[in-house]
Fold this sequence. Notes:
Elements: E1 2-13, E2 20-31, E3 35-39, H1 46-53, E4 61-66, E5 69-70, H2 76-85, E6 87-90, H3 102-112, H4 117-130, H5 146-158, E7 164-168, H6 176-193, E8 196-200, H7 204-207, E9 212-217, E10 220-225, H8 233-236
Parallel strand pairs: 3-8, 3-9, 6-7, 7-8
Antiparallel strand pairs: 1-2, 1-4, 4-5, 9-10
Amino acid sequence: MSMLELRGVSKSYGQGSAEVHALHEVSLTADEGAMVAVMGPSGSGKSTLLTIAGTLEEPTTGEVLIAGQPVSKVSGSAKAALRRRVIGYVFQDFNLLPGLTAAENVSLPLELDGLSARKARLAGLRSLERLGLGERAAHYPDQLSGGERQRVAIARAMVGERRLLLADEPSGALDSSNAQVVMRLLHDACKDGGMTAVVVTHDAQLASWADRVVFLRDGRVTDQTSPVPGPESLLTSEPNQ
């Protein structure tokens, strides 16, 4: 089953001579349990694709379906619930609340959805521990490094029963070692937990963790391909007989 499907999605801003076409008839499918990497130069429409897929923006034309349901037929309150319960979003600039600790930032979506503070905190702590941040749970964002804040943002996006994760350069603030840890975690969440991930990245080595790579240029899909065998293949390949 397709967890995310974009059908002929276009997005324009402005009017007349000032009109800018961010996306042109983009179609993309991400099945349950799959990781799709999106690559392309700056200004190719990668971030716009994610905001539309995450229901943060509406397409000018075309349709977005999440778990087979057309988003255009969903009310505003139902979209908000969808973002709290189903979609996890990792922004380039983290979007952490400065007055909340790391644990509170991660558990907040669960509390907003009605989970008790105690259960939400326990889930938040587990999510932080998976990313090696258990000892930083009580720290505020301004007490964390850029890489730590990025991992907190990823923990928040993955907390609870999220089924679709949309990540805009999730390794942008990480060193190469932590970037590999994050991509392995996303990969395992897809393969073992059934989550679907769409990851924008400029790093071809990190994209090699994905099941499929989609290339964007000037708002158009120019190619979709399976990547060359990546890091995980070294763990699963059988020795020559």
